[in-house]
Write a structure and sequence with these properties.
There is one protein chain. By secondary structure, the protein is mainly beta. The protein has a single domain, classed as Maltoporin, Chain A. It contains three helices and 38 strands. The protein has a 22-stranded antiparallel β-barrel. A five-stranded mixed β-sheet has the order 3-9-10-7-8. The chain has a three-stranded antiparallel β-sheet with strand order 4-5-6, with no helix packed on it. 49% of the residues are buried. Mean pLDDT is 90; it is low at 1-44.
């Protein structure tokens, strides 16, 4: 691994690690005539190509410099993103961005080579995004876009969109075997030998982890990937098969009062039978062609996934005899097709790109919610068959008016339709909705290696279609239930700059505002809708810095702050704070490499306190974690890598919630803070060889 300062490579060899990947806004003589790209300071200088200060790429070298405790933390390479966990490791992660507790993915669109990860109308949570199927060692890079400013980004992208790219081939084969504390074991092999006119990339991962819980997670997963690819990411095609299987036990968040009273320890469970089983199998194909006058791309996918999830968050509040454990099931087949075509030309002597795109998706879903005792079903809350279909078309115009000003304007139209067949006919029905989303970016400069941006855009997230057809509360059918809109509007504004004025230092600064029409959501844990239904507004700033003074040192420092408020105090006077809305976020990474046989990094990660209820009377504490990676190369083929997590052994929380629960023996429910602790200090050692 090396942190390059200045590199020149043909575009077709970059495999989407630089600005050429952003075909929506590449102007330097146009993609059609750009034979070489000068890559300055860690291959992430997007001046002249990016359309916002908070759009960027993270290359493989930056990803490798960061020790990740869980695979989903690869997204933290994007500034301002926090990835955590409140349950067993097999469950989808908890995400935070731009002052939003994104739950498992409600307002962050996550894709892998254009294949969606977010699952809509999901058994546990809208936008559920499980990244455990991803083998991070074969991820070539990460593209991120924040805010609803991009015509090619639709559902779940109000806060941002993250796309991980998979390579067409590996420079070398890799084999790894690792072991460490808390029951960590891992084995990996991957290579991409020549096959016909292309390469056959394969990867296989076996993983086990217990975690620190008294009742071990015993998380076991199997990942496999097989890809045949010819050509390059700009002119080529690929066919990819991926498979994932995982099982685990879960220690969910626990009530603070039980720990304070000595009833349980920080890593104990109040229901050791919680846990889950998950699988995901997919086949996808992608095709790309870039010429002098146009660029075209298309991809299609079929995904089959299953999830059984057992949770008990309230213990004996609803059922003092059997307890409150419930099972959530999700079985689905997701299919989709995306295509876009870009024409390069000139309008009145000015360089222009016109992009036309179409996106389709269909989810065929069997989803259920059941009462259980130690994973055995004793009752049904609701069971549904759902077919949800969506289609979108978009147009984007990118125009360079002169050498100091360019614009990107777009319009997106989405249509959604859902059909729910419920075990209670009163909750069956059909729903449909549509939305038009205009986008606009004004880009000024560069002056003194600095570019300035003004952005505006409308976006949305879809709600669970069951919430749009619901009539009665599944638990209490005599009570009416509140319906929700199928699509929820978000409007974003941003002003920012990106500069490389200081040699070897890339800096981007942005201030933003994000208005969300309603935070009313379907609650998979209860089978009905939440009762907030209030619009919210978030205002904040983000500052990102990447300093690479030479080939062996990289310093990465990012901070973000967001003020989140509901629009006004509700009728009950509860307050205007948005529960779980993260405020301050900061990361600092220092990485060295190419110092003889040695390499290493230190990473400091901070996310600040959050209001837990609307009146701000209950708040979480902040969490600060320090991790490290050290490596030693025996020769060009063999190296040893040591990762250490929570070096300071901080006793903090991965997540905090405030809600009522009832322990066995308590006379009534108690409102309390429930938390999931951070893992104690642990190390992982890996022997890695290339071939």
């Amino acid at each position: 691994m090396q942190f390059p300062r200045v590199i020149e490579k043909p575009v077709q060899l970059l495999a989407c690690t630089v600005a050429a990947c952003f075909t929506s806004a590449v102007f330097a003589a146009g993609v059609q005539t750009l034979d070489t790209v000068e890559v300055v300071d860690a291959v992430d200088d997007l001046i002249g190509s990016a359309t916002a200060a908070t759009q960027g790429t993270v290359i493989r070298e930056q990803i490798e410099a960061r020790p990740n405790y869980r695979s989903g933390e690869i997204l933290e390479a994007a500034p301002g993103v926090i990835v955590t966990q409140h349950s067993g490791e097999g469950k989808a992660n908890q995400y935070f961005l731009r002052g939003i507790n994104l739950d498992h993915g409600t307002d962050i669109a996550i894709t892998v080579d254009g294949m969606p990860v977010n699952q809509r109308t999901h058994g546990h949570g809208q936008g559920y995004s499980d990244l455990n199927f991803l083998i991070t060692d074969v991820v070539s890079g990460l593209q991120y876009k924040k805010g609803p400013y991009y015509a090619d980004e639709g559902d779940f992208s109000s806060a941002g969109a993250m796309n991980r790219q998979l390579p067409y081939y590996l420079d070398k084969g890799i084999a790894e075997i690792g072991a460490g504390g808390l029951g960590y074991r891992r084995a990996l092999i991957a290579d991409s030998p020549k096959a016909g006119n292309g390469n056959l990339l394969y990867a296989l991962e076996l993983f086990h982890a217990d975690g620190p819980s008294t009742n071990p997670d015993d998380y076991r997963k199997f990942n496999a990937m097989l890809r045949y690819a010819e050509g390059t990411a700009q002119n080529g095609f690929s066919v990819t098969a991926m498979g994932y299987q995982g099982t685990w036990n879960a220690t969910n968040q626990i009530p603070k009062r039980a720990v304070d009273a000595g009833l349980i320890g920080r890593f104990d469970s109040l229901d050791p039978s919680d846990g889950g089983q998950a699988s995901r199998f997919s086949v996808s194909a992608a095709w790309n062609k870039t010429g002098e006058k146009s660029a075209s791309s298309a991809n299609a996918f079929v995904i089959r996934s299953k999830l059984n999830l057992w949770n008990n968050f309230t213990f004996f509040q609803d059922d003092p005899v059997n307890g409150d454990q419930f099972e959530q099931t999700d079985r689905r087949i997701t299919t989709g097709f995306n295509a876009k075509h870009t024409l390069f030309g000139k309008w009145g002597g000015r360089e222009v790109e016109n992009t036309f795109g179409i996106q389709t998706r269909n989810d065929n879903i069997d989803v259920g919610l059941f009462n259980t005792v130690q994973r055995a079903r004793i009752g049904t809350t609701r069971a549904d068959h759902v077919v949800e279909t969506s289609g979108a078309v978009y147009y984007q115009n990118s125009l360079r008016w002169n050498n100091r000003f360019r614009t990107v304007a777009g319009l997106r139209a989405d249509y959604y339709r859902g059909d729910v067949t419920s075990d209670n006919p009163l909750n069956s029905g059909r729903a449909n909705d549509h939305m038009l989303s205009p986008k606009l970016a004004l880009i000024f400069g560069p002056w003194s290696k600095t570019e300035y941006y003004l952005n505006y855009g409308r976006g949305f997230h879809s709600n669970d279609v069951r919430g749009a057809t619901i009539s009665v509360d599944p638990k209490n059918p005599a009570n009416a239930a509140t319906r929700e809109a199928l699509l929820v509007r978000a409007t974003g504004y941003e002003a920012g700059l990106r500069t490389t004025f200081v040699p070897h230092l890339q800096t981007s600064l942005a201030v933003f505002r994000l208005d969300i029409q309603s935070e009313l959501l379907f609650q998979g844990d209860s089978g009905t809708t939440a009762d907030s239904g209030r619009p919210s507004q978030r205002v904040g700033f983000e500052l990102s810095n990447l300093y690479t003074p030479n080939s062996w040192l990289m310093l990465d420092a990012d901070i973000a702050y967001t003020r989140a408020r509901f629009s006004g105090i509700d009728a009950a006077g509860a307050g205007d704070r948005v529960p779980g809305a993260i405020q301050g976020v900061g990361t600092l990474t220092a990485a060295i490499n190419n110092l003889g046989p040695y390499s290493g990094s230190l990473r400091l990660r901070y996310f600040g306190p959050r209001p837990l209820i609307e009146d701000n009377s209950l708040r979480s504490n902040s969490t600060t974690l320090l991790s490290a990676r050290a490596g030693y190369k025996f020769d060009k083929r063999i190296r040893l890598q040591l990762d250490a997590f929570n070096l300071l052994n901080r006793r903090s929380s991965q997540i905090d919630y405030a809600y009522t629960s009832q322990l066995r023996g308590e006379a009534a429910p108690v409102n309390d803070i429930h938390f999931h602790p951070t893992e104690p200090r642990s190390v992982r050692l890996a022997l890695i060889t290339s071939f």
